[in-house]
Structure formats: structure tokens, C-alpha cells
Amino acid sequence: MTEPLTDEQLLAELAGGLAHSDPVPAFVTEFAKAAFEWRSIDAELAELVFDSSEEELAGVRSTGEARQLTFRAPGVEIEVVMMSDEARRLIGQLVPPQQATVELRYKDEVRSVESDHLGRFAFHDLPVGPISIRCLILDDGTETVVQTDWMII
Questions:
Q1: Rounded Cα distance, 116 and 29, in Å
Q2: Can you say how many angstroms the Cα of residue 38 is from the centroid of all Cα atoms in its chain?
């Protein structure tokens, strides 16, 4: 039978185990830096209220790699469909329909498009990794900034 460890021995073994932990993956560090770098106190954060990847659709055939997301902020919803086909597309709509400059933000780059009169927008050839959507909505001379949290695609 082995002797029980003293408190000092137990703490030494725990410290040894923690000293040999795996390093933080590079993409996690990049993601954290990007999230901090793109913060804005003036932007309204749109809350994720629906994610199709969290839904179980029993008995439904797969139609490919499409993911539907809905984000909600006061006065606007951002509805998005991301398709992981060869073109890697993101198609979205602002509800209620409103014209806005929509930015797709990732790593060190920002892509920008204008939504149409129905609030629709699209991005093609999406990068792999974390992205965020930022909408600059101009209504009656007032600019509202709404942005989503970062998500992995």
C-alpha cells in the first residue's frame, strides 16, 4: 500500500502537471487579438438568437453545408446564410429592410458592400476562420452601428 501524499507533495505534482500543458493554438491567439482590435464602444452588439448548427432536424435530408444564423439588436435583425460550397458564400438580409453599409471583418481585412432596398447583401469567397459582420445603418441622418460577435466559419 502506498503512503498518502503530503500537501507539499500533492502541490508539487499538480505544479508539475500544469508546467507541461499544451501551448495555446495560434488561431486562438489571432482570434482573441482580432476580437479586441475590432471592439467599438459605439456599436450595438447584435445577439445571436438562432443558429441552425445547434438544431437537430430528424428525418430531413442534407442540402449541403448551409448554416443559418439570426442576430438581433434593437430595431434590426441580421439574417445570414453561410454556404460552405466551393464558392464559400454568405448571403444576408436586414429585417426590417434597410439600406446600410455591411462590412465582413476577418483577421486583417474588411470587405464592404451596400445592402439593396430590401436589405439584402452578399459576400463570396469567404476566408476560413473567424468573421464578424458590422452594419452601418443610416436612417433619417442618424448613423447606427450594429455588429455581430465573432463566429468561426
A1: 36
A2: 12
77-89 pLDDT, tens per residue? Answer: 999 999 887 778 9
DSSP 40: -
Contacts of 49 by beta carbon, 8 Å cutoff, 6+ apart: 70, 71, 72, 77
Q: What's the whole-model pTM score? A: 0.69
Q: What are phi and psi of 8, to 5 degrees?
A: -65, -40
Which residue, 67, 53, 75, 40, is CA-closest to 147? 40
Question: What pairs with residue 114 in β-bridges?
Answer: 101
Residue 54 lies in a domain: yes
Residue 58 structural domain: 43-152
Number of domains in the chain: 1
Q: What CATH code is carried by the domain that includes residue 77?
A: 2.60.40
Q: Is residue 20 part of a domain?
A: no
Torsional sign, CA 85, 81, 123, 29: negative
Domain annotation covers residue 72: yes
Residue 32 lies in a domain: no
Q: Which residues of the chain have pLDDT under 70?
A: 1, 34-42, 56-64
The phi-psi region of residue 141 (left if phi > 0; otherwise alpha if psi is between -120 and 50; otherwise beta) is left
Provide the H-helix boundaries in 38-80: none
